[in-house]
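User: Hello! I'm new to structural biology and keep hearing that structure can be predicted from sequence alone. Could you demonstrate with Branched-chain amino acid ABC transporter permease? Please show me the input and the output so I can see what each looks like.

Assistant: Of course. The first part below is the input, the amino acid sequence of Branched-chain amino acid ABC transporter permease. The second part is the output, the predicted structure written as tokens.
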Amino acid sequence: MSNQDLATHDPAAWRDGFRTGLPTLFGIGAWGVVVGVAMIKSGLTVPQALGMTLLVFAGSAQLAALPLIAANAPVWVIFVTALVINLRFVIFSVLLAPHFASLPWHKRLGLGFVSGDISVALYLQRYPDPAPAPGKVSFLKGLLYPNCAAWQIGSIIGIFLGNAVPTDWGLGFAGTLAIVCILVPMVASKPALCGVLVAAVVSVLAADLPYKLGLLAAVVVGMVTAMIVEETGDKWRARREQDSKATHV
């Protein structure tokens, strides 16, 4: 299959991608509203908040950066924090690269910019095989573009809503609610739960570190803990299977 065939727009595949991602769009939009409100209540002006949501397009990194911005933390601390939180996109890139390696770099760059966690997961669920296939790019666009639009529309609504609602209404708590909304669905395994618990303990113990470095330390230690627990669990299960086979023999 040529590059032109792979990139040729396939309306049926685009609609299929849209229908696949449709159930998630309301949640993405609602999350965007919460983050938009949180940006305003963290002290950003409307132009600054609009610039952040249009250029960054990474809800977790935006939420993590907001308290650092509010605390006047150094730019490098904000940058490193966002970089650590977005490391998962390196994994997404590795997974998607074999599917679209033949496309021009600017098209891959554009698709990468509008990619999101749920969209990538749904795409890989439909196309686990990286072999070229008609409609793959259109299916991915049907997932990515509505997802990006839902996020941006929700976020912009939240920005103007947060700017209009008085501070004494308590919407500053929206940032905490947004983090809870992100956190709960992700704690779906024992390694993730261990990572979250350890990160929570570290964040409390390291709360007095300057420049909000306690937050960065909690993220790093939590990620390492989850990786160690997952690795240890895999080895333990493999050893148990071997022992079980040896017993039956």
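User: So the tokens describe the shape?

Assistant: Right, they're a compact way of writing down the 3D structure. Reading them back into a model, for example: The longest helix spans residues 213-248.
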